Amino acid sequence: MNSGLPNSGRSVCPLDATSCCGPLQLVRTSLRCAHTKPVIQSSLHGATTVQTYSKWFPSEIGLKELVSAFGEQTKAVIDGDLDRAEAMLTVQAHTLDTIYNSLARKAMNAELLTQFETYLKLALRAQSQCRSTWEAISAIKNPPVVGYVSAGEHRARPATGE
Known about the structure:
By secondary structure, this protein is mainly alpha-helical. The radius of gyration is 24 Å and the shape is flat. Helix 1 packs antiparallel against helix 2, helix 2 crosses helix 3 and helix 4 (83-109) packs antiparallel against helix 5. It has 2 domains: 23-78, no CATH class; 83-141. The protein has helices at residues 23-31, 37-53, 63-78, 83-109, 113-141.
């Protein structure tokens, strides 16, 4: 996709090509492309959040690489490829199950009633989120079938002699 700018010749759609010199240029470039504007904003927000939470883990991944990777993953989802989403949700479900079990054990070892209640409430929230995550995976793997019944099809049918 061309930018429409005179003599540019460069693609401004980060989903087509990321020949930008840095994250700020990537954002500026994407804002000229109407269909990627929401994608890049979400990718940039996600990338900055990942960098903030990843401070505890050594990583050499820069903001530009994260934005680019999130853009590619978003394009894959738009194109109907949900493999990454399924993998991510599966890992999250197992993580939530681990959190549930850890908090449930802490509740059983609590010495005060308030500690017991707090740990158990948090454990049950994690369990509920785990269930919701598995439901989301199930919905991705087995999308609901929507059927429409016309006005004439819902009438009772005569019984057969069998």
